[in-house]
Amino acid sequence: MPETPLVDPAWLADHRDDPSVHIVDVRDSWEYDSIGHLPGAVNIPFDSYRDADSSDPGTLPGADAFARLLGEAGIGPDDTIVAYDDTHGVFAARLLVTALAYGHENVALLDGDFSSWQRAFETTTESPTVESVTYVIDGLAATAPIVDRAAVAAAIDDETVTLLDTRDEAEYEEQHIPGAIRIDWREFVDDESRGVRSAAEIESLLTDRGISTDRNQRIILYCNTSRRLSHTFVVLRSLGFTDVVIYEGSMTDWTAVGGATESLV
């Protein structure tokens, strides 16, 4: 298993033949088949692990559905999942947060994306032969990095907790949870490399927004439907922030029940 939930292309190139490492491409199937993919990668499209109608919070797909997806992809409970997309990792990060929610601990995001990988390494249009396995998930894990609406409400007046809004400026200005600080998830991305900015750059960004760089502080992330926050979650965890959690329902859940909001417009 990699040391952090963020791995660079060189690490993946060195470990892609390890049978315990499973590379997952979360793009649409036509992209995977027609444009090409990383050698050995299996395809689990983004929409297949999102279900707003499941009995689990937010857009989590449900334990049985997610277990079936992983099992059909040949991924076992102790295997390492390394996921990627072609959108700086934001869709792939969502797969990893979902896996963590259901107790699959060995996960990592490819730093960069498919376009970044292509610059230095080969791609293929050949799909690997996959042997399905039995994967059983009983429900959300006790270690799931998820908090509910009540925890968010309590955090509004708790100075020891940082509420972090990962949406863009217009969304934040129109409506956000009281006391939340905004950092658009894209601000953690380096446009040249397509990967994550350096630790020093991210720490400077946090400081500029009035967020402590104390690795033990509690940070609650939200967006609209828990996609964008997933990238920020992986980045902060990779930098050693130990108490980063997500509000799975995000603004969709918060506004649905009339939660208090602030506006800058």
Task: Give an account of the 3D structure.
The chain is an alpha/beta fold and 265 residues long. The chain folds into two domains: 6-118, Rhodanese-like domain (Oxidized Rhodanese, domain 1, 3-Layer(aba) Sandwich), CATH 3.40.250; 146-256, Oxidized Rhodanese, domain 1. It has ten helices and ten strands. The mean pLDDT is 97.
In short:
With 265 residues, this protein is of the alpha/beta class. Helices cover 31% and strands 14% of the residues.
Secondary-structure map with pairings?
Elements: E1 6-7, H1 9-15, E2 21-25, H2 29-35, E3 42-43, H3 63-72, E4 80-84, H4 90-101, E5 107-110, H5 114-118, E6 146-147, H6 149-155, E7 161-165, H7 169-174, E8 181-182, H8 199-208, E9 218-222, H9 228-238, E10 243-247, H10 250-256
Parallel strand pairs: 1-5, 2-3, 2-4, 4-5, 6-10, 7-8, 7-9, 9-10
Helix pairs in contact: 4-9
Throw out a few tags for this protein.
265 residues, alpha/beta, Oxidized Rhodanese, domain 1, 2 domains, 5-stranded parallel sheet, 31% helix, globular, thiosulfate-cyanide sulfurtransferase activity, Thiosulfate_sulfurtransferase
Query: What is the level 1 CATH name of the largest domain?
Result: Alpha Beta
Q: What's the CATH architecture of the largest domain?
A: 3-Layer(aba) Sandwich
Structural class category:
alpha/beta
Please give the domain count.
2
CATH topology group of the largest domain = Oxidized Rhodanese, domain 1
| Low-pLDDT residue spans | none
Number of strands: 10
The percent range for strand residues is 5-15%
What overall form do the CA principal axes indicate? globular
Number of DSSP helical runs: 10
Helix content: 25-40%
What strand line-up does the widest sheet have?
1-5-4-2-3
Whole-number radius of gyration? 18 Å
Largest sheet features: 5 strands, parallel
